[in-house]
Amino acid sequence: MRTKLAQGNGMVKSTQRQPPRLHPLAVRLMHWINALSVIALILSGWKIYDDAVILGWLHFDDSITLGGHPETALQWHFLFMWPLMLNGLIYLIYGTVTGRFMRKMFPISIGEIIATIRETLSFKLSHDDIRHYNGVQKLMYVGVIAIVIIQVISGLVMWKPIQFSELTALFGTFQNARIVHFVGMALISGFICVHVALALLVPKTIVAMVTGGPRDEAGDDTSHSQQSTAH
Amino acid sequence: MTIKLLGSRFRPAKGIDQGILDNHRELVDSINRRGILRGSLTLGALTMLTGCELGHDGSIQTALRAVSEFNDDVQAALFRPDHLAPTYSVDQVVKPPHFNAFYDPEDVRPVEASSWKLELSGRIADKTPWTVAKMYDLPETEIIIKHICVEGWDYIGQWSGPSFKLFLEKIGADTKAKYIAFKCADDYTGSIDMATALHPQTILATKYAGQPIADPYGFPLRLRTATKLGYKNPKWITAIEVTNVKPGGYWEDRGFNWFGGI
Ligand code: HEM
């Protein structure tokens, strides 16, 4: 809006800022790097798991895993742990510094979550304004971010149980860390199924996560990167 | 929570019951894989479409190996030379130790103590081969530590024998060199970095639970280090070389991470 006016009267030069997009480029890049890393880690993790299974009945068929041999699956796993960790760290700093987390995901109230569930059950849940996450969305995003953090820690423990023995102590034993890592994988897989299904139900959210989405007056304060778009 | 082993290459399955299925597992698997009922769009099918099997295509394999080598450097930097692995009590020791090799226990070729010799080469001052008697003469260090396999299983074992650091000093090895390479009686090969070789919990094990190591577990001499995965602990060692040229190893050459640290 502000931009339209500015252009209209021709008075304000390109230094005038437009409100940032709902998902600035940085968020979009981080989201898709994360999605690729998480999926590659899960698929290669399944192949690694197959060599010493935790649940006797659960065995992942080669056709749904990444890496035809355990050694290749391990190589993929130890490749994608880097983008997952670095990208995730940058996202956590970004979300804190720009205030995105506080604006979009907190506070979460029980009342808000119940309201979302009620509206969903009575088919009254509105998707008109995708700039605001509802109670369930907030809970799911904060939840999955927390689980991914725990997943990184349990992963580091399995990678270096001796060098990081202080971290191993958090889990008690190496085998406990394996179980935590396995449960984390299951929860993240569950999240992805629900998350992707919901996104497909409201396709404009996917468009927004690709192109940036609507301008958001209360968007992330990334003044430095946004300035250039006004030129 | 039980840990079951399926088609493990580090701990081949034994027992008659599974035999028939196991002997034909590869065939069964390949028939399953090719089955027309599984013609849905799987990752496998996708990679066939693009004409490359992920990870075994040349350039992808080269990239994966490069990252794996980068991870070697990261692990070397993370290695804490004086940091000790947890140790356990005698009553937690699993007896006998777990068998692990790239073949079944029936195929172990026992080593004769009388004819066994440990050959030395590379950056070593005194390359006189060692005999079993001479080895047993060195003071022993005992460690009760976890053996962790790259597959995910582990067990507590009680190992004793001369500390590797002591041995390297005895033979006048250049401890500023980077690597130690091993050759084994079963044609297994392996190698480790010098920092790990000098770690206080790295020994040339001659005994398990106070008794000479039994044939299937590496008699008369095997490496036991508390800071590396199982496959970095060669058994039935017959030759040691100190070198500055990065050596490979049986599993490492097949794509398992070289450093293999824990
Ligand atoms: C290919 C699969 C994926 C698709 C299609 C997808 C799609 C989306 C879409 C459309 C949004 C915008 C959300 C909205 O308006 O509610 C979003 C946000 C989000 N997604 Fe995904 N996603 C995928 C995978 C993942 C994975 C694997 C994770 C984490 C493990 C993840 C975590 C998140 C988080 C935390 C947000 C909120 C980000 C923020 O606002 O800062 N997504 N995703």
Q: Could you name the ranges of chain A where pLDDT drops below 50 across 5 or more consecutive residues?
A: 1-14, 224-231
Distance between the termini of chain A: 16 Å
Helix amount of chain A: 55-70%
Q: How many domains of chain A? A: 2
Q: Quick one: how many beta strands of chain A?
A: 0
> What is the 3D shape of chain A?
globular
Number of helices of chain B: 7
Structural class of chain A: mainly alpha
Query: Rg of chain A from C-alpha positions?
Result: 21 Å
Largest sheet of chain A: none
Number of structural units classed as domains of chain B: 2
Structural class of the secondary elements of chain B? alpha+beta
What is the tally of helical segments of chain A?
10
Overall pLDDT score of chain B:
84
Oligomer: heterodimer
Order of helices and strands of chain A: HHHHHHHHHH
Bound molecules: protoporphyrin IX containing FE
Radius of gyration of chain B: 20 Å
Please, could you describe this protein's structure?
- The complex is a heterodimer of chains A (231) and B (262).
- By secondary structure, chain A is an all-alpha fold.
- Chain A has 2 domains: 25-79, no CATH class; 99-214.
- Chain A contains 10 helices and no strands.
- Chain A has helices spanning 2-9, 25-49, 70-97, 100-105, 110-121, 135-159, 165-171, 174-201, 203-211, 223-226.
- In chain A, α2 runs antiparallel to α3 (70-97), α6 (135-159) packs across α7 (165-171) and α6 (135-159) packs antiparallel against α8 (174-201).
- Chain A is globular, with a radius of gyration of 21 Å.
- The model of chain A is unreliable at 1-14 and 224-231 (pLDDT under 50).
- Chain B is α+β, with helices and mostly antiparallel strands and 262 residues long.
- Chain B folds into 2 domains: 2-78, no CATH class; 90-254, Sulfite Oxidase, Chain A, domain 2, CATH 3.90.420.10.
- Chain B is 24% helix and 19% strand.
- Chain B has helices at 16-23, 25-34, 43-49, 58-78, 132-137, 164-170, 194-197; strands at residues 119-122, 141-148, 154-161, 179-184, 189-193, 202-205, 207-208, 211-212, 222-225, 237-243.
- In chain B, the strands form 3 sheets. A 4-stranded mixed sheet of chain B has the order 1-10-4-5. Chain B has a 4-stranded antiparallel sheet with strand order 2-3-7-8, with no helix packed on it.
- Chain B is globular and about 50 Å long.
- At the A-B interface, α2, α3 and α8 of A face α2, α3 and α4 of B.
- Bound molecules: protoporphyrin IX containing FE.
